[in-house]
Amino acid sequence: PGAALAAVPLYLLADDELNEVRELSPPYQAGTGPLLLPDMWPAAATAVLAAACALMLLGTTLVDLGLQRRFVNGTMIAVGLGTGIWSVAADALWQHGPAILFIGLAMSGLSRPGRLKWLFVASALMPLIRPPVIAIPVLGSVGATVTRRDWRPVAVSLGGSAIGLLGFGFYNQFVFGRFSITGGYGAGIEDVHTVASPDLGFLAGNLWSAGFAADRGVFVWSPFLLIVAAAVPFAARRTPLWVRTMAFGAVVYTLFQFFVRDYGGGFNFAYYRYPIEPIFGIAPLGAFGARYLFDRQNRLVDMVLRVAIGLSNVAHAYAAWRF
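Above: the chain sequence. Below: its structure as tokens.
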């Protein structure tokens, strides 16, 4: 329910009247008749604000990590306009906009010891959006705890996540009559045969398609990410441990997501959407990877990376216009 709850403040400002909608996209249009729907602008505005605030939090985190403001601005443009954050997360009220907002809140909370309350809020709200995403802040907090020799980051994140999961479970109990924290993942998680005998071939093919399929491949439609990913192993040592463990959390979430979900992600959106949360969770580490490439002062590498960012921006600008 988290994405819908995020839109409540703006819906309080909207007209109470419902609008009759007769033309819907397939497969909903056949035999359904007209539907009564509220105004859509509060949902759209919430998606835009969530994505914008997430990028702002990413920018402040990168500044806290010591990167120059000019480079941070360029990173925000590349991540914000060259990925599905623009064409999907900010396009409509999917789960992705609020999810990356809370990831951004968590990373900002980890970047300074005095912001642990932000980490708690993010960890508590994230299960209401997409429960498995809690792997990103929780593993990030493990890195902060190890580095600072302070138990509070991991305790705050685990405590917030537990509260959020309980709240999600009670919500399902109230609405559907059953206490559950699996959400839309139930079919994949509760199939004992699938968990006991995982189809690793399906997972490998799913991951390959998520990366390189012509219609949904993240590296096809955001090619600069592949270049930056190649530099990450060389730049990792420059980053705090929590940045690396948060990126590892994003990898864990990715593996889980594509273990229980087909890479396609549905219809009525451009390119890809499932990798949006991992992209954002890995963004601080990726920023250091890009910084490593630019510091090498190799003109060919600089040119290729800049062209790849430009092509990504153009692709997602078209998608934002088209959809």
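The beta strands are 19-21, 35-37.
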